[in-house]
Design goal:
Blueprint (H helix, E strand, L loop, with lengths): L5 H49 L13 H10 L5 E2 L2 E2 L30
Antiparallel strand pairs: 1-2
Length: about 120
């Protein structure tokens, strides 16, 4: 729970009992629960309003992707964009024209030009 061990949780409970007392602690816990529910409702409403405002083009938008850690993990570390083992997973495309026999152009030779590609 929030990265806390049993010792830390026990210490927080004892501190809460000392601060609020045993008779006011249930009221304080109920108020904290209401506050958390209201905050969660406001965050969900803001997220829904943002998605509605962006339109259907951004239906897969997740505000958590704006977190730099999530952004790096999603876009740089996951293999969902066609890359596998550092190489493209798609087959290599052959050129539209054959390469020169020697691999290099001789002096004064005009390189091949594809009118349809430009």
């Amino acid at each position: 729970m929030f990265g806390l061990g049993w010792l830390e949780v026990g210490a927080l409970i004892i501190i809460a009992l000392l601060v609020f007392g045993p008779e006011k602690l249930p009221q304080a816990a109920a108020q904290a629960g209401k506050t958390l529910r209201n905050l969660r409702r406001m965050a969900n409403s803001a997220r829904d309003d943002l998605r509605a405002g962006l339109g259907p083009e951004f239906s897969d938008f997740d505000p958590a992707d704006l977190n730099p850690r999530n952004f790096v993990r999603k876009h740089l570390l996951e293999d969902d964009d066609g890359w596998k083992d550092g190489k493209p997973a798609v087959a290599e495309v052959e050129p539209a024209y054959p390469a020169p026999v020697g691999g290099e152009l001789s002096v004064g030779e005009v390189p091949p030009y594809d009118n349809e590609a430009t």
